[in-house]
Amino acid sequence: MQDHPREIDETNPAGPVRAASGRTPTRRLPLRRPGVIGESYLLLVFALALVARMLVARFPADAYMGTGLLFDQLGLRIAVGLGMGPTALLPPLYPEYLGLLYRTYGYSHHAVVASHALLGALSATLTGLFVRYVGLGRKYAFLAGVLVALFPQALAQTRHLSPQILVGFLFLVGAFLWLRHRSRPRWFQVTIAGLLFGLAILGRAGLFVPIAAIAVAPRPGSGVVGRRFVLLLLVLSTTVPWMIRNSRLHEEPVLVDSTWAMRLQAATIPGSHHIDYRVPGRGTLYADHMEVLENRLALAEIIGFGLTRPATVVGVWLRRVQDEISFSGWNDAATRDLFPYHGIAYRWAQALMFGTLLTLALAWLILLRGWGERERACAIVVLAFTLLAAVGDGPGDARLYALPFLTVLAMRGAWGLLVLSRVRPFAAGATWSERPFPSGVMLPSRMRVFGWLALCAALWVHGFWHW
């Protein structure tokens, strides 16, 4: 079993295929495990992503938009030693992160945005490495890293006081460790992945959905069930202490935060009110139970609205899915910040890059039906984040969480299309000396090719229509 990146002959990635002429191309043997020097091109990806984000970081967005004010004030409380205070308004990870930065570098939003740039550059580099462990060559890994490094929506998100970049990085590292080995991960990787997944939930409670999905995704080999159990146990051991703290504070069961139902209400019921966040004062000693009461009332209103007007709820969810797959590059953290989202260069770059990624990913999933273990897990993660975007979490944030996994599928699709262009499966008299694709990948029929082209055309029309 080969668990490290394997080199594919990119001059003939399909392997030896006998065409109508009877000539069999040569095939390069797999290379040994790539060393640091062999993967040094990822340093270029890191440098490119970091420079691009630092240029954006010169102009930080207004920190007092949306929940940025609350994060900023809670971070200041933690920095001066007051802690989170008697509140559970939002998940604790990002306020603790801001408090650490403020305590180390002083009260500086530039330091926060610079840390976002560093985490974003590491995410782009890790995406390229992920592509290598899927089994593609260095060119595909480099291209994947560049796409994530220069993705316009990810660059713009760097400017906002939002937990998306930190949480997305933790989730990506945990997923990489969990999926790095094709059969079963090592116990050390299971331990680190479980802790990182738990921290990610403490930064965005809705991430328990993709984490559960990636944990139960089919994996070959024996001993996987025990590792799944340990992974979920570590996730619970990281999150349950905070839930116990919140429940004791408000004297009733409270999960990661006490406002999740209010956010779901604002996303589900048209015309519902926005959340009025109230940060505890310096001398506040007792919890304000009004936030828990409002959250309970919001949950009851959601249930009642869903039972009486289910068609309206489904329509709202479908519109949010349309927003998720549209080419708009608007971020959820930007409520009044129009730079750079209304710029024509930003909008065109976002549309072309996101549309291309979706097209190539659909080529792998629909045209070629490529369902390897890691590719299947990436597809499940993308679908889980699309579900989150539909029922509650913001479409912009969910899209950026799913970006690395969508890019992996897109690189697989690009590789598959390259194979099809060279193999010419519909040529008259073509025969095969062996399978042109890995196990689990199906050779497309003409009907499937036409269906994929029609779906891509509809996707591009829809993307620009909701631009």
From TrEMBL:
Q: Where is this region: Disordered?
A: 1-26
Query: Tell me, what is one Gene Ontology molecular-function annotation carried by this entry?
Result: mannosyltransferase activity
* GO CC annotation: plasma membrane
Residue stretches spanning the membrane: 36-56, 114-133, 140-155, 161-179, 191-216, 348-368, 377-394, 400-420, 449-465
Which BP terms does GO give this entry? lipopolysaccharide biosynthetic process; protein O-linked glycosylation
The record's principal subcellular location, in a coarse class, is membrane
What membrane topology was assigned to this protein in its record? Multi-pass membrane protein
Q: Write the record's keywords in alphabetical order, separated by commas.
A: Cell membrane, Glycosyltransferase, Membrane, Transferase, Transmembrane, Transmembrane helix
UniProt domain ArnT-like N-terminal: residue ranges: 114-202
Where does the record say this protein resides?
Answer: Cell membrane
Pfam families named in the record? PMT
Q: Any keyword Isomerase?
A: no
Tell me the domain of life: Bacteria
This chain's protein is named: Phospholipid carrier-dependent glycosyltransferase
In its UniProt entry, the species of origin is given as Eiseniibacteriota bacterium
Lineage of producing organism? Bacteria, Candidatus Eiseniibacteriota
